[in-house]
Amino acid sequence: MSAIDLSGPSAARKIKDKVALVLVCVAFALALIPLVTVLWTVVKNGLKRFDVEFFTHSMNAIGGRDAGGGAYHAIIGTIEQVGLASVIAIPIGVLTAVYLVEYGGGGRLARVVTFFVDVMTGVPSIVAGLFIFAFWLKLLGFEYMGFAGSMSLSILMMPTVVRAAEEMLKLVPNDLREASFALGVPRWRTICFVVLPTAFTGIITGVMLAVARVMGETAPLLVTVFVTTAINNDPFKGPQMSLPLFIWDQAQLPQQVAIDRAWTGALTLILFIMLLNLAARLIARLRKPVSR
Amino acid sequence: MAKRIEVSGLNAYYGKTRAIEDISMTIEPRSVTAFIGPSGCGKSTFLRTLNRMHEVIPSARVEGKVLLDEVDLYGAGVDPVAVRRVIGMVFQRPNPFPTMSIYENVVAGLKLNGVRRKGQLDEIVEKSLRGANLWNEVKDRLGRPGAGLSGGQQQRLCIARAIAVEPQVLLMDEPCSALDPISTLAIEDLIANLKDQYTIVIVTHNMQQAARVSDRTAFFNLAGPGKPGRMVEIDETNKIFTNPGEKATEDYITGRFG
Ligand SMILES: Nc1ncnc2c1ncn2[C@@H]1O[C@H](COP(=O)(O)OP(=O)(O)OP(=O)(O)O)[C@@H](O)[C@H]1O
Ligand SMILES: [Mg+2]
Question: Does a structural domain hold residue B54?
Fold first, then answer.
């Protein structure tokens, strides 16, 4: 009987291992370069106007070459438009996912819905905007308003929400549904009180990503909400501003003061998205039952 | 309160394949009936037809009659949800609800069906956990997550959850298969206690367990390779283990089984 070989990997394999490790690290560094550069540039340039006035004033009566002014009107607009878009898209998206996973059972309707969700994922954002423009503004004759922008954003959000919620619902073990059924709990209560709470953390994360994604959309808002320099708190009446459009509007002006405003707008937008992600994590943390 | 179950001519299918064939038997009230038999012979399938859990699986269906004190569970107008309230079930793998505390797990069946009076719930929690031999271990941490208990404790939690809705029949599918001997003994004691109030059916691969806890034993077997499972015989446990009527039963319990 020969002795059992307990020696480690051969020299050739050790070299291969090292090479692979170096390649992975280089790839990581390469991926990090654009990320860090973008963040660094935005922070560096954005801090110049990161002041109280920026967050309390609009651009009303402030010309492109004047200093001062702020993005208050754009922040209000973004919060209202994205908020309304979420109110539309999240319930529809989550309920669609519930249908697909809990009721559809791979039937014809479920397959059709899945197909259209896939198609919607690929819709370019400008097309979503133009659709609302044609339907809401031209056909029904409404004026520019924040709500029109919300509708176009919700078209963009919906497929992401459906996909994320669907994946999370599929992860809920069937055992739990059966346990609930076996207690004589009807299906809809099982879904509301067992399945959805179990998938909640994952769904929240997916939803937040969807919200963050549409927060930076510019094109659909341009054709549905338009731009303004004044504060408009009513998303159902008249043009509103939004952060992406504020950035776009200021960045195309030649004056340095305007470009500085644009940078600060960009920084604000990034902070918003970071806050959303933090909030998602916090909610997820709070929901997780304490381990023993 | 405990009820007699009479099964006649029962077939269960998964899609087109028949999993169990023409089963008829009577399950006596206030007694423990054990199902034994080789793996894949349809014990779980049969058990799940008794509280209409079989049809939860897509494309699964059942033919035949299951009478619960004269009422056909598969009759027209019978609500499967109502059936499951009367006939509870404990699964092979413990499956407490992960988002709920121990307390919430026990009252889940009641709460999800609309009972919400706090005082009443507290009482039921204590009673059910005592009934499941778990009260002393968890009474100081009812607010902790149910998933944080040990496997054996989780299984007893699932039993407490099942008896909290006060079913008349309790079906248990290999409830001890993942448990250590001490937890197993705790659950066997529990079964002996529960028998006064409930009709109990237990599937087990453990012959000693069947012999210890059950009053009657049914032996299931495959009709042949690729054929559906069927019930070979059912009789007093004593008789099955000492003097079975069929050769196949004797071969199986003495271990002379292919
Ligand atoms: N969900 C399912 N879909 C299709 N066939 C199934 C399904 N569940 C079980 N079967 C089949 O039905 C037959 C009986 O299975 P069942 O689980 O009832 O056996 P069992 O006696 O409980 O076995 P074990 O002792 O291993 O638990 C098997 O042939 C199995 O492959
Ligand atoms: Mg089984």
Answer: yes
Q: State pTM to two decimals.
A: 0.87
The CA–CA distances, whole Å, from B172 to A57, A200, B68, B193 equal 68, 30, 17, 15
Assign residue A228 a region (left: φ > 0; alpha: ψ between -120 and 50; beta: otherwise).
beta
Quote the CA–CA distance of A17 and A50 in Å, as a whole number: 48
Asked if A195 contacts B99 with a C-beta cutoff of 8 angstroms, the reply is: no
Residue A184 and residue B162: Cβ atoms within 8 Å? no
CATH of residue B12's domain is 3.40.50.300
Is residue B102 domain-resident? Answer: no
Closest-CA residue, ligand 1 atom 9, reads B45
Do the beta carbons of residue B45 and residue B54 sit within 8 Å? yes
How many other C-beta atoms can be found within 10 angstroms of the C-beta atom of residue B17?
A: 9
* Interface touch B81/A179, C-beta < 8 Å: no
A98 touches A107 (CB < 8 A): no
Phi, psi of A105 (to 5 degrees): 55, 35
**Residue type at position B246:** E
Give me the numbers of helices (H) and strands (E) for chain A, helices first please. 12, 0
Ligand 1 residue neighbourhood (C-beta within 6 Å): B 14, 19, 39-45, 57, 229
The total number of structural domains in chain B stands at 1
Instruction: Report, as an integer, the average pLDDT of B15-19.
Output: 93
Closest listed residue to residue B179, CA positions, set B145, B199, B209:
B209
| Residue B59 per-residue DSSP state | T
The angle formed by the CA atoms of residues B228, B231 and B235, to the nearest 5 degrees, is 170
Which amino acid is residue A101, in one-letter code?
Answer: V
| Contact in structure between B10 and B63 (CB atoms under 8 Å) | yes
- So what's the pLDDT on residue A27? 97
Sequence-separated (6 or more) residues with CB below 8 Å from residue A14: A8
The residue whose C-alpha atom lies closest to atom 2 belonging to ligand 1 is B14
Q: Tell me which of B36, B43, B89, B204 to substitute to probe ligand 1's pocket, judged by most ligand atoms within 8 Å of the beta carbon.
A: B43
In sign, the C-alpha dihedral spanning B138, B141, B146, B148 is negative
The answer to whether residue B76 is domain-embedded is: yes
**ipTM value of the model?**
0.91
pLDDT tens digits, B188-209: 988 998 888 889 999 999 999 9
Assess if residue B29 is contained within a domain. Answer: yes
CA–CA separation, A233 and A241 (whole Å): 10
Output the CA torsion sign for B194, B196, B201, B204.
Answer: positive
Nearest-CA neighbor of A146 among A229, A250, A248, A74?
A: A74
The range of the structural domain enclosing residue B87 comes to 5-96+169-253
User: In a 10 Å sphere around its CB, with 0-12 CB exposed, 13-18 middle and 19+ buried, how is residue B144 labelled?
Assistant: middle
